[in-house]
Specification:
The complex is a heterodimer of chains A (262) and B (261). Chain A contains 10 helices and no strands. Chain A is mainly α and 262 residues long. The longest helix of chain B has 17 residues. By secondary structure, chain B is α/β, with parallel strands linked by helices. Classes of the chains: A mainly alpha (262), B alpha/beta (261).
Chain lengths: 262, 261
């Protein structure tokens, strides 16, 4: 008779683990209750959604020209916001990368700032900049810039940290300057990842720029808001289709560029 | 151990100041377990010295201590008369005169062989003009191609470094060191990651270029034949100290092999 014992499939939970598990389950149930998701509400909502879709079709081409101009402005906001954001992200990423930054305190400070930029939603930044610089696309561009920094600076810093330290050591050994080491060893190695992040930033900014108009920060969002408030659902459908086509086009173009370059 | 510890003092040292002076050098990575301690020797200008020893003897650590890529715990290092151990702002200036060829060549793979060689000119204060070959002045680009030509790779100047073979990459690393115009060249097992034939070719090329340029060279190696063929002097490390220091002409391979026992 062998003394081998087959281990149980699931480990026996500790008392603390059991209590924590129960707490998580209770919190999930409470979350559904608080948010008011109930089958009767859903059953009432679906026919209303059907009526809305019915009123949206066929989409109206009545205001197609101004819609397309707004769409162009939206994309331009995304491009400007992304370029500005990426331009600030590069130096911030260098300061936030522990092996490149001149001081550990600076790493902590910059990482905290970038985390703040990232955790506050772009819509909130748009409201802040509307208050600061007034209604219009400038507020939208600034909001997208801050949002891009929050995203790109973090990934740029990580890409730089992950580069092979060997070439860096070779340049250090020959007495190269800090900027020489960064620009001739670190950035060339991190470039594929940085290009990838930049393209994702543009895609993200394009999606983000659409809703910024809802708070008066320029772009096509304001057109959508007005159409919905005036119950012009057929015009709203045109705007939604236009937004969809823009986002898909940017994503496709971005994928094409990524495949060509990387 | 049946090898007597000898101390070699080259005749050249009597007249010319040493290119490298190491006195009482010590380094440990864990308290109470020194990699080596009390290491002292001088290296005459223009000489080629092989540093040998078993794995863990501290050859690479000692070599990296010379330009302070690793900080020594105690002792003094002088390179071309300058005190490396005490240098702070001057350290970069001292390093510009010391070329370093690494075992794994340490090239930037995504950049061309030419740009990697141009990087060597960063030691000469070219700043941003030596970041990429496209930014470099015509004379620097010409010189970089000439350096590649000397290692037999001028035709591959535009090739990405990560598309080169191990031997070719190490040749580019040697060209980068030449581009630096150093007085001293340190090489950490430059042939160790190559197959025997490529390793022999790279060492042959490295030693002949260094002799031609009259550089002071210290290289580490596990290959005793390389140590005896290409070096004027062999220093063996073991047990945290210098076990042997002798002109290579007075040594036999079997004698050195005993050091590994």
């Amino acid at each position: 008779m062998s003394d081998r014992v087959l281990p149980s499939r699931l480990g026996r939970p500790t008392p603390l683990g059991f209590v924590l598990g129960l707490a998580v389950v209770a919190f999930v149930i409470a979350s559904f209750t608080t948010s008011g998701i109930a089958p009767d509400k859903l059953s009432r909502g679906i026919p209303a959604l059907g009526r809305l879709v019915e009123q949206m079709f066929p989409p109206s081409a009545e205001r197609l020209e101004p819609v397309l101009w707004s769409l162009l402005q939206t994309f331009q906001m995304a491009v400007a916001g992304t370029i500005l954001g990426l331009a600030f992200s590069l130096p911030l990423a260098i300061l936030a990368a522990p092996s490149l930054s001149p001081h550990p305190a600076l790493v902590w400070l910059i990482r905290s700032l970038v985390a703040l930029f990232r955790t506050v939603p772009d819509l909130v930044w748009a409201i802040v900049f509307v208050i600061a610089v007034g209604l219009g696309p400038a507020a939208g561009v600034l909001a997208l810039m801050v949002d891009t920094i929050g995203f790109a600076a973090r990934f740029f810093a990580e890409a730089m940290e992950e580069t092979d330290k060997g070439p860096r050591e070779a340049l250090t050994a020959m007495g190269a300057s800090r900027s020489g080491i960064i620009f001739s060893s670190v950035i060339p190695q991190a470039l594929p990842s940085m290009i990838n992040t930049s393209l994702f930033s543009l895609e993200k900014a394009t999606r983000g720029s659409v809703v910024l108009g809802l708070v008066g920060a320029g772009g096509i969002g304001i057109e959508l808001k007005v159409s919905l408030e005036m119950f012009d659902y057929d015009q709203a459908a045109t705007i939604i289709i236009a937004i969809f086509l823009l986002v898909v086009a940017v994503e496709r173009a971005s994928t094409w560029v990524r495949n060509r370059i990387l | 151990m049946n090898v007597a510890v000898t101390s070699f003092k080259p005749a050249a040292e009597a007249n010319a100041p040493a290119a490298i002076t190491i006195s009482g050098l010590a380094k440990s990575f864990r308290p109470g377990r020194p990699v080596f301690s009390g290491i002292s020797f001088d290296i005459a200008p223009g000489s080629i010295v092989a540093l040998i020893g078993a794995n863990g003897a501290g050859k690479s650590t000692l070599l990296r201590c010379i330009p302070r890529l690793i900080e020594p715990d105690a002792g003094e290092i002088r390179v071309l008369g300058a005190d490396v151990t005490e240098a702070s702002r001057a350290l970069r200036q001292i390093r510009t005169k010391v070329g370093f060829v690494f075992q794994k060549h340490n090239l930037v793979g995504r950049l061309s062989a030419l740009t990697n060689v141009v990087h060597g000119a960063q030691a000469r204060g070219l700043g941003a003009r030596a970041w990429l070959h496209a930014l470099a002045p015509h004379a620097v680009r010409e010189e970089a191609v000439h350096c590649l030509d000397r290692v037999g790779l001028a035709a591959m100047a535009a090739q990405r470094a990560d598309q080169l073979s191990g031997g070719q990459s190490q040749r580019v690393a040697i060209a980068r060191a030449l581009m630096q115009h150093p007085d001293v060249v340190l090489a950490d097992e430059p042939a160790a990651s190559l197959d025997p034939q490529a390793g022999d070719e790279v060492m042959q090329l490295f030693a002949s270029l260094m002799r031609e340029e009259r550089k002071t060279v210290v290289f580490t190696s596990h290959n005793l034949a390389h140590a005896l063929s290409f070096a004027d002097r062999v220093i063996a490390l073991g047990g945290g100290r210098v076990m042997l220091d002798s002109p290579s002409s007075r040594l036999r391979e079997s004698e050195l092999r005993d050091l590994y026992v």
